[in-house]
Design goal:
281 residues, alpha+beta, Diaminopimelate Epimerase, Chain A, domain 1, 16% helix, 42% strand, globular
């Protein structure tokens, strides 16, 4: 048996098991993910995040879903890592960079707290090229195109990457929408060769949106940072707007805006420490 120290954190309810692997080996993720992430028989989380050494950034992040598959990015996990580094006094001025599979993410501590801090991260530019998302069957950006689920059900969907693939669909009543049913069907559609995250959004007004996200490999979660960015990018694209917006998810609210420098998306929200622990394999 091998013991691994970990800490639990969440970004507006999107919770992860974090392991600082900069100076020791990390566990066999595919073997432990389902057990550790199980909310009834394990630690309980939406996934496992590894913090690693990086030659290009403050640290490197690898993130794994509850089924053991590797994800590409996560806004909530990025904010949590920023707080973790700040709590350990590893940030001289509150700013940090994190290497992910797709890009280097820049972040800054907005408000420091003992258990909860407010952190902003630059999630980069939304990618609309179907080949880069990836989404099959299209040469041009997929914006409000018809998606046929079955003979009785079809939606208007948009596809975008925020470092990971997202399908975004606007619905009239998101609170009562059957996210589990359609999230799973769309995630595993042949249209998405790497599967996809699926966001169901309902616009309240020009500054507020309610969002539920079915995450690839994990199912519906309390919040999804990259999913919020994807929904915000989609709404902005459809409405030709660059106004800031508050995205309301099950676990809390994120503020989204476009950077004045290059129109990349800035995500601001809480990062909360829960507890330290150890687990064995």
């Amino acid at each position: 048996m091998t013991q691994y120290s970990f800490f639990k954190m969440h970004g507006i309810g999107n919770d992860y098991i974090f392991i600082d692997c900069r100076y020791h080996e990390f566990p066999p993720i595919k073997e432990v993910a389902k057990t550790w992430c199980d909310r009834n028989r394990g630690i309980g989380s939406d996934g496992i995040v590894l913090i690693l050494l990086s030659s290009e950034a403050t640290v490197k992040m690898r993130i794994f879903n509850t089924d053991g598959s590797e994800a590409q990015t996560c806004g909530n996990a990025l904010r949590c890592i920023g707080k973790y580094l700040d709590d350990r006094n590893e940030l001289s001025d509150g700013s940090f960079t994190i290497e992910t599979i797709r890009r280097i993410v820049h972040g800054v501590i907005i408000k420091k707290g003992t258990e909860e801090s407010i952190v902003a991260v630059n999630m980069g530019l939304p990618v609309w090229n179907p080949r880069e998302i990836p989404v099959s069957g299209y040469n041009d950006p997929v914006i409000q195109q018809e998606f046929i689920v079955d003979k009785d059900t079809k939606f208007l969907h948009s596809c975008v990457s925020m470092g990971n693939p997202h399908c975004v669909i606007e619905v009239d009543d998101v609170q009562n929408f059957p996210v589990n049913k359609y999230g799973s069907l769309i995630e595993n559609s042949h249209q998405f060769p790497e599967r996809t995250n699926v966001g169901f959004m309902q616009l309240l007004d020009a500054e507020n949106m309610v969002l539920r996200v079915w995450e690839r490999g994990s199912g519906e979660t309390m919040a999804c940072g990259s999913g919020a960015c994807a929904a915000y990018a989609t709404w902005s694209k459809i409405n030709s707007s660059i106004s800031p917006m508050f995205i309301h998810l099950k676990g809390g609210t994120l503020k989204l805006s476009f950077s004045e420098k290059d129109n990349s998306i800035i995500q601001e929200g809480s990062a909360t420490f829960v507890f330290n622990g150890s687990a064995e394999t």
